[in-house]
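Quick one, tokens below. Sequence please?
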């Protein structure tokens, strides 16, 4: 059966846009991958092999190479990007990775965004600049015009009534001037002069014009002549395109020509209508919508050039579309592997999951699963098997991130449809480099000098177990929710360049009618994906009146309260309705056509609306009421505080369920699907077994024990199982605390405390009076004994529960390793086979803390480890990093350690 599933998996992972020769190995993609920063590309073969072997050993499946700025003092080892030595070391890296069964991806450039020394001014990013000056201020006029070529400017005179009149540029400046108090609007077309951010040696230069497909093609030429210039060169699995961070760029050389072809009017004559102070917001909204639509189409064409180029070289494309001014759904759809980003912490209410107090939510926002669905939605709709995420960027300050903070962020990504985790990240650091080694300024450190490196395989094993099922399964969502992009484009409250960022979805998405609808559907347990205008035009109607493009069949299309909708989209919806597809308009139909030039379609647009009102397949009502009337399934899990995603393998339904709240512990839950068998699988402990359940008119009901921070898979089958059902081990009220402890420190830096401690109360070891513990980075060994009452002999064992753990604890009982606590909840099941009832038991907890206190030590003593170019090293607020002012970070066991008896609860 395993061989059959593997064969099916390998077949399904051959996506429609993949080159035929591209093969994804299951062992590579089911494991988490990591960003791999190459500072100055000052890497050597020994160091590369050592790090790749560390990846393999820890359970990482592959690495994404990003060359960046270098380390001071290492200049003689810098390898210019795409130079001879760089190509040699890259070929060696890919070869070694293949030997070890690892994958390698590569950024199409250094740092970000795309650009470099081959980008000349003509192909660099460009901007449209408006300057409003009083007509009498000739010096300022000349100063503005001097910054750009005179031909690359248009001048308009605004009279007292606010009317703009074009100025004849062939006349002298004095002839332009009108009466005192009049204003001139100067429109100039200028280079942004933006340089590649965090560029590596050999990668410095201008950012390429992202609205010019020909500029992109010329940019890619250097890779054709270097990376692909020899048959002996190795190629990566995928090329990568980072999040859009092209600042101020809102123009390209042939923008006017493209605009007129697309919208059939001359923008140049009325370009003043999109200027910041143009007073007529109605006209401005129409023209600015057309302007932004043109930007989006140009960006799409440019990124399609890049994606097609990757395919032509038998590589995959990995693409972060967010941050751009384009239609995100269409842009993500260009990639073989769409990729979102989890930046910062989600501020979970899970007990003991900390949020860095220095993280500035006002500046950076919070991760949100509804934003992550912009990447997973086109993947689900179009049948792409992999959806990636840049994971744990700035989750906390340097040296302060624990595995217990990482796991819930990953669980949130899984519930949003992500199934290909990329840690952010690992920095190449030479062997023998003293702590903390080479670091990247914005990453959680997943390298071998990380404080959680020894426990890292536990996280990787968990992610691998989850991703195996999430990648093998297909999405099982019922709803398509329309993205009203034209409402966003018509918004005159935003600047001309309106960017759809992943960091601040609250500012442009979540508080709109579309965002509020998505949130309501999410909270009421509906499975849905977003869909664009282009994707609606691609839908196929199935015999059961569902719609699809790939394998996922959707029962209903939901249109949020929308003002602007193109005639083509409304017409496509009308055709779908006539063929029996259920369509819901949340509260009202679209009110108007978008843009300045579509007035000729208004009458037929109104006729279509009238026809839709009469269609038996169309409902105009609050979405939830309409969905209830249509009997569209939804889950009650969110009402209990549980997050989930529902997927399918054949006829079996797979639920991944995560408790990311503080509401649920143990209770009865309902699932919307009928079943003959229900299986439970814990991807952390790998426990599995069938559960008892009851059938009802909506599906099934069962008992579930899932404390805050926990997760599981629930698998519904259509054939009854035979044999025993599993029980849940529920902590009982019978417990006692371990009060006598001996604590020793045998493995850590910068120095080992010599004292053996016997604390009367377990508090942070930094409060125990030994100065060495204020700087200590390592393990503390806690030892105690306990006697279990004979009355506790139930065959189930006991739970070990810790009030607060900073940060991980490897537990041995009577000399036997029983597991490691590394994530919330801080408890561990100890089987009865390891215990002696009625006799004394010994227990040892080898506790690992954060490395923050050693960072304090280095900065307090002025030891120079911050020796990087460019950003060097900054803290979570993007200020120069300085740990010398930190207070000692709590370490060890805080509070009590309990031995807890177990009640066995059979699910029902």
């Amino acid at each position: 059966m395993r061989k059959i599933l593997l064969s099916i998996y390998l077949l399904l992972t051959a996506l429609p846009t993949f080159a035929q020769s591209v093969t994804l190995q299951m062992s590579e993609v089911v494991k988490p991958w990591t960003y791999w920063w190459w500072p100055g590309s000052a890497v050597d073969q020994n160091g590369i092999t050592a790090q790749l072997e560390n990846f393999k050993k820890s359970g990482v499946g592959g690495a994404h190479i990003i060359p960046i700025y270098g380390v001071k003092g290492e200049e003689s080892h810098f390898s210019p990007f795409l130079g001879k030595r760089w190509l040699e070391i890259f070929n060696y890296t890919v070869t070694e990775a293949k030997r070890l069964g690892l994958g390698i991806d590569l950024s199409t450039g250094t740092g970000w965004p795309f650009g470099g020394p081959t980008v000349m001014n003509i192909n660099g990013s460009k901007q449209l600049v408006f300057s409003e000056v009083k007509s009498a201020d000739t010096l300022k006029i000349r100063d503005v015009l001097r910054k750009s070529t005179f031909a690359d400017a248009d001048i308009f005179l605004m009279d007292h009534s606010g009317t703009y009149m074009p100025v004849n540029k062939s006349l002298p400046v004095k002839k332009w001037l009108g009466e005192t108090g009049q204003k001139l609007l100067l429109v100039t077309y200028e280079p942004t002069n933006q340089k590649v951010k965090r560029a590596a040696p050999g990668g410095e230069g201008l950012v390429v014009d992202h609205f010019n497909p020909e500029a992109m093609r010329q940019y890619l030429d250097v890779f054709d002549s270097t990376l692909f210039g020899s048959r002996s060169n190795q190629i990566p699995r995928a090329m990568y395109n980072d999040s859009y961070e092209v600042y101020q760029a809102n123009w390209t050389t042939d923008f006017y020509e493209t605009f007129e072809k697309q919208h059939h009017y001359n923008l140049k004559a009325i370009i003043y209508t999109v200027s910041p102070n143009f007073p007529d917001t109605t006209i401005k909204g129409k023209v600015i919508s057309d302007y932004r639509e043109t930007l989006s189409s140009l960006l799409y064409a440019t990124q399609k050039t890049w994606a097609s180029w990757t395919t032509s070289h038998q590589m995959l494309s990995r693409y972060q579309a967010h941050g751009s001014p384009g239609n995100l759904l269409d842009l993500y759809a260009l990639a073989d592997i769409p990729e979102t980003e989890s930046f910062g912490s989600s501020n979970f209410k899970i007990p003991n999951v900390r949020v860095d107090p220095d993280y500035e939510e006002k500046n950076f926002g919070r991760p949100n699963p509804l934003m992550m669905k912009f990447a997973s939605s086109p993947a689900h709709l179009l049948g792409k098997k992999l959806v990636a995420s840049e994971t744990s960027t700035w989750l906390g300050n340097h040296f302060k991130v624990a595995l217990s903070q990482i796991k819930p962020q990953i669980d949130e990504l899984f519930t949003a449809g992500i199934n290909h985790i990329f840690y952010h990240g690992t920095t190449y650091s030479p062997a023998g480099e003293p702590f903390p080694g080479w670091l990247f300024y914005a990453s959680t450190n997943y390298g071998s000098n990380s404080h959680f490196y020894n426990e890292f395989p536990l996280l990787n094993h968990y992610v691998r177990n989850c991703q195996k099922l999430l990648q093998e399964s297909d999405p099982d969502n019922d709803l398509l929710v329309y993205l009203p992009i034209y409402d966003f484009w018509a918004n005159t409250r935003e600047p001309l360049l309106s960017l759809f960022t992943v960091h601040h979805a609250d500012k442009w998405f979540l508080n709109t009618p579309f965002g509020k609808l998505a949130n309501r559907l999410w909270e009421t347990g509906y499975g849905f994906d977003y869909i664009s205008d282009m994707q609606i035009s691609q839908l196929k109607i199935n015999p059961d009146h569902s719609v699809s493009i790939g394998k996922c069949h959707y029962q209903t299309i939901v249109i949020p309260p929308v003002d602007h909708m193109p005639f083509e989209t409304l017409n496509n919806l009308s055709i779908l309705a006539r063929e029996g597809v259920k369509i819901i308009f949340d509260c009202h139909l679209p009110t108007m056509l978008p843009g300045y030039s579509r007035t000729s379609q208004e009458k037929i647009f109104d006729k279509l609306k009238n026809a839709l009102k009469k269609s038996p397949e169309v409902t105009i009502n609050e979405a939830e009421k309409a969905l209830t009337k249509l009997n569209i399934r939804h889950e009650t899990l969110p009402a209990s505080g549980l997050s989930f995603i529902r997927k399918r393998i054949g006829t079996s339904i797979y639920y991944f369920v995560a408790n990311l709240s503080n509401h649920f512990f143990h209770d009865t839950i309902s699932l919307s699907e009928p079943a003959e068998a229900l299986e439970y699988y814990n991807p952390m402990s790998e426990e599995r077994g069938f559960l008892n359940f009851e059938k009802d008119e909506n599906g099934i009901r069962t008992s579930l024990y899932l404390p805050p921070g926990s997760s599981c898979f629930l698998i519904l089958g259509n054939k009854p199982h035979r044999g025993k059902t599993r029980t849940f081990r529920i902590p009982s009220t019978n417990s006692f605390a371990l009060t006598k402890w001996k604590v020793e420190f045998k493995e850590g830096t910068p120095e080992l405390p010599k004292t053996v401690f016997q604390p009367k109360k377990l508090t942070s070891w930094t409060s125990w009076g030994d100065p060495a513990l204020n700087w200590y980075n390592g393990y503390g060994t806690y030892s105690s004994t306990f006697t279990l009452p004979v009355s506790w002999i139930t065959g189930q064992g006991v739970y070990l529960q810790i009030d607060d753990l900073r940060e991980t604890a490897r537990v041995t009982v009577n000399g036997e390793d029983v597991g490691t606590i590394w994530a919330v909840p801080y408890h561990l099941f100890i089987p009865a086979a390891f215990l002696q009832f009625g006799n004394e038991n010994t227990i040892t907890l080898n506790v690992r803390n954060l490395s923050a206190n050693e960072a304090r030590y280095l900065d307090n003593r002025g030891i120079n480890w911050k020796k990087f170019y460019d950003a060097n090293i900054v803290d979570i607020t993007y200020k120069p990093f300085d740990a010398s002012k930190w207070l000692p970070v709590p370490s060890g066991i805080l509070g009590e350690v309990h031995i807890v008896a177990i009640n066995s609860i059979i699910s029902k």
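The chain has a mean pLDDT of 93. Residues 126-191 form one domain.
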